[in-house]
C-alpha cells in the first residue's frame, strides 16, 4: 500500500499527460476553415463528377466549362453529413451527371475550390450548408 501512495503524484501526472495527449490529437484532427475566403463569393455552374457523402465533411466535385471550352475541375467542401441532414439534405440529392449551380466561399490561394454557401440542384431546389439556404449574396 505504501508503494502505491508513494507513487501517487507520478501516477496522477501520467494520467493527466495521457488525457491531454488524447484531447489534443482530437482537436488537431479537425482543420481550420481559414483557407476559405469568408467575405467573397464565387458562383460556379457545372456538372457533378463525384459526390462524397462522408465524414468529417461532404464533398462535391464539379466540372465547369470555361469560356474557351476548357474544363476546370472544382472541389466544393460542405459540412458533415449529420449537419446537412438537419438542413434538409439527403445523401441521394446529388448524383454524378447532375447540373448544379453553387455559390462558394472560394479558396484564398486561387485554386478552383471552395466551401459551399448555397447550391441550386438540378430539380431547382436550393440548399445551404447545413441550415436553410442563405439569400443570394448579390442582394445582401
* Mean of all residue-level pLDDT scores: 84
Give the number of DSSP strands.
6
Shape: elongated
Largest sheet: 5 strands, mixed, barrel
Quote the distance from N terminus to C terminus. Answer: 70 Å
Q: Report the structural category.
A: alpha+beta
Helix content: 10-25%
CATH fold descriptor of the largest domain: OB fold (Dihydrolipoamide Acetyltransferase, E2P)
Low-confidence runs of at least 5 consecutive residues: 23-29
The helix/strand order is HHEEEHEEE
Structure described in brief:
This protein has 140 residues and is of the alpha+beta class. The chain has 3 helices and 6 strands; from the N terminus they run ααβββαβββ. The protein folds into 2 domains: 30 residues; 98 residues, Nucleic acid-binding proteins (OB fold (Dihydrolipoamide Acetyltransferase, E2P)), CATH 2.40.50.
Topology, pairings included?
Layout: H1 2-6, H2 8-29, E1 42-52, E2 59-65, E3 71-77, H3 81-86, E4 99-106, E5 113-120, E6 126-128
Parallel strand pairs: 3-5
Antiparallel strand pairs: 1-2, 1-4, 2-3, 4-5, 5-6
Description:
The protein is built from 3 helices and 6 strands; from the N terminus they run ααβββαβββ. It has 140 residues and is α+β, with helices and mostly antiparallel strands. The model is unreliable at 23-29 (pLDDT under 50). The protein has a 5-stranded mixed β-barrel. The radius of gyration is 22 Å and the shape is elongated. It folds into 2 domains: 1-30; 42-139, Beta Barrel (OB fold (Dihydrolipoamide Acetyltransferase, E2P)), CATH 2.40.50.140.
Amino acid at each position: 500500500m505504501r508503494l502505491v501512495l508513494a507513487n501517487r503524484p507520478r501516477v496522477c501526472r501520467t494520467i493527466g499527460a495521457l488525457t491531454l495527449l488524447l484531447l489534443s490529437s482530437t482537436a488537431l484532427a479537425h482543420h481550420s476553415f481559414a483557407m476559405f475566403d469568408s467575405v467573397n463569393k464565387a458562383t460556379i455552374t457545372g456538372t457533378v463528377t463525384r459526390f462524397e457523402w462522408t465524414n468529417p465533411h461532404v464533398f462535391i466535385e464539379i466540372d465547369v466549362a470555361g469560356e474557351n471550352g476548357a474544363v476546370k475541375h472544382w472541389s466544393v467542401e460542405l459540412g458533415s453529413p449529420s449537419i446537412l441532414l438537419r438542413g434538409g439534405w439527403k445523401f441521394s440529392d446529388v448524383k454524378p451527371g447532375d447540373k448544379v449551380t453553387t455559390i462558394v466561399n472560394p479558396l484564398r490561394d486561387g485554386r478552383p475550390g471552395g466551401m459551399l454557401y448555397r447550391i441550386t440542384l438540378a430539380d431547382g431546389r436550393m440548399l445551404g450548408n447545413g441550415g436553410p439556404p442563405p439569400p443570394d449574396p448579390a442582394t445582401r
